[in-house]
Amino acid sequence: MKFRKVVSFICTVLILGGLSVLGFRGYYIYKNYANKKITTDIYDDIFFDDYVETGSDWENKEDELESVDKEDYGVESSEEGNESESSAVAHGEKTSGKKKKKSTWSGNGDLEKEKCKELIDSLREKYGNKDIIGYLTVDGHDVEYPILYGETNESYLKTSPSGGYDYNGSIFLDSGNRPTFVDSRSVIYGHNMRDGSMFGSLAGIYSGGIKDETFTIYTYDGILTYDVLGTATIYAFNDNPLLNPVSLKIDEYANQGYSEAEIARFIEKDEGFYTGIDSIKSSCIYWNSDLDYNDKSHLVSLMTCYGDGKSHRFAVVGLLRE
Q1: What is the phi/psi pair of residue 15, to 5°?
Q2: Are the beta carbons of 101 and 74 closer than 8 angstroms?
Q3: What are the φ/ψ torsions at residue 234 (nearest 5 degrees)?
């Protein structure tokens, strides 16, 4: 009898413990979903508020569509069209296609910059945090998040964009990089969450290849588009070949008494500062040999945990379109 009571007690503790863990994880999964919806709503309202009014009959709307590609609206380009998808476009809704709709203002540089500023300012106001420096979209996939920039890489490891504790953490730029994405090598980090949130879906997204894949960073100064050059696995305890921060160089020059303008010129002309992109190939699973680059090209890599989560990292290497 006593043995049964002990077993019953242990089972009860295990069940309660399991429920607590599930509740804990469930809370942060829901919180991440809610936060993501807030940010995507802000992004959509700013960048997709000008829709081409279309009905279900595409052939009668060619004069309104002009250069807009039907496939960019997630609509099948058949003669009959797709009535449900066309209706969604007409009402300004997101469609289920791989690519998002184009905005009618696309290509207008001044308006682009204005909208980028509006996006970043809106996110900063919503979260009450000036550490938000950008907005990341992995194009054609459900990965959209604000980018944070803290004093150290621990700042947003377990911290939400609003500054409170969050198991999911935030998507953040390496603290050694400059927040304007002007460095030759920059790295953006995110947790590999089991529910696929944050950067949890990256390895799966690119498991079949990287051809024609892109990601986009909306900054205060405009839009930066990156073609995916490769996907890499990096040993966590070696020097990261995808990261080449300038902070140490800047501090070194500053300690010698040089002005900010002089330091900027030194960094720009420092040939030794730029590591060869070819050196990254050996770490890559996929490599896009169709892309042109040189040692002055700019890379941004999206990095997350991989395998056991301790010894390796998975990275999506993006090459900036000049």
Answers
A1: -65, -45
A2: yes
A3: -120, 135
Q: Which residues contact 246 (CB under 8 A, 6 or more apart)?
A: 176, 177, 178, 183, 267, 273
Which residue type is seen at 189? Y
What residue type is assigned to position 147 of the chain? I
**Assigned token pair, 84:** 């449900």
168, 31 Cβ separation under 8 angstroms: yes
What confidence tens digit (pLDDT) does each residue in 145-191 have?
Answer: 999 999 999 999 999 999 999 989 999 999 988 899 988 889 999 99
| pTM for this predicted structure | 0.69
Name which of 171, 190, 150, 195 is nearest 28 in CA terms.
Answer: 195
Residue ranges of E strands in 178-221: 185-189, 214-219
The bridge status of strand 299-306 relative to strand 185-189 is: parallel
Return left, alpha or beta for 181; rule: phi > 0 is left, psi -120 to 50 is alpha, else beta: left
